[in-house]
Amino acid sequence: MRKSLKTTLLITVPLLVLAISLLLPRVRLLTAHFLPSSSSIALRHSSTSALSNMAFEKELQVALLAVQRATLLTKSVFHSHAKGTLSKNDASPVTIGDFGAQALIISALQHNFPNDEIVAEEEAKDLRENSQLRETVWELVQAAKLSDAQVEKDVLGGAISSADSMLDIIDKGDSKGGSSGRIWAIDPIDGTKGFLRGGQYAVCLALMVDGDVKVGVLGCPNLPVSDSEPLKEGIGADASDEEGRFGVLFSAVQGQGAESRPFTAGALKEGKSIQMKPLSNIADATFCESVEAGHSSQGDAANIASKLGITKPSVRMDSQAKYGSIARGAGDLYLRLPVRKDYQEKIWDHAAGDLIVREAGGMVTDVDGQKLDFSHGRTLKENKGVIAAPKSVHGKVIEVVKEVLGRPT
Ligand SMILES: Nc1ncnc2c1ncn2[C@@H]1O[C@H](COP(=O)(O)OS(=O)(=O)O)[C@@H](OP(=O)(O)O)[C@H]1O
Ligand SMILES: [Mg+2]
Ligand SMILES: [Mg+2]
Ligand SMILES: [Mg+2]
Q: Which EC class is the enzyme in (predicted)?
């Protein structure tokens, strides 16, 4: 009897040890999926992009998920709603998609980083004055959820409690910005005109610390998934989900490189490292610029291109999708040339894209060759225009830009 017990133990104990050691990693991953702690965020992230224990890991994970959820909201507006478009004081448009996306992103940031400041493009004034508009946005915001309910609740903080608190959350984006501390910059829909016409737009989020961009994420739901697809004129509405072209999420962390990943409604896909395309002859470059002639001087861009020997026509697309596109090598240069002397670029129009291009090996400056300075408040008041190019040719481009624009050399 004793002998048979001994034999049983000899067989079952090693089998039990083997089973536990096989199951343990799965248990850890499952726990990681359902625990709200930063360690769960770290574990899930390390399983997707091998960046474990890196700086700003939690910030990147929260930013990716917050942008993903907000981008899903904008897609739902595009496909099934009247856009509820209003004209702002500067005659630029804002839609229910802009308000809703801003509310969702700020809510996620407040859940995770309650002491951080936020500079965001929109404010809730119009919604406070128009109850029907407020109701529409509130319905949209309630409906926008990630498919993983646990991630939705634990990482993004779950639902906003009421329409009134949604308004207060939108207005939390009123920080003055500046040169100290942690400040997030949000453009809930960049390229609102592109969004309205079914072209390119981007949901943009960046974290600055002491005026330096540390983390950047761009949700570009109308760009092709493939990094190698050549740049096309800005229309993206034909990129239907059924064709498997569901857009792209770009991201970067300072010192850790830039990545792209296919945009999905479900779990985040694995990120893939992206780089600017090597460009040995500037004459071979493809450059991109704004669709709106009021946002960037297309005449000056044509002159600059011709002096550089560039013969390919420019590719016009709305939003920071331009930064993402050149960062992944689908194009080479981004020229944004001042139309008006008094216009100050907004930090939310550039922070994420600037970091993504620089981390992909590019150089981003203003038209005088100065790096973009995000430490002066809500605008880039010390910079004029933007020139983004591979490092190898950036100096040559600036030389010609200065000549054409008559800037001091
Ligand atoms: N005069 C002027 N000069 C430069 N930039 C301006 C100007 N007026 C507006 N804006 C900002 O342009 C943002 C959209 O930029 P894009 O490059 O996407 O322009 S375009 O839509 O492709 O023409 C747009 O961002 P969104 O409002 O988020 O769409 C504006 O912040
Ligand atoms: Mg706007
Ligand atoms: Mg914008
Ligand atoms: Mg915007």
A: hydrolase
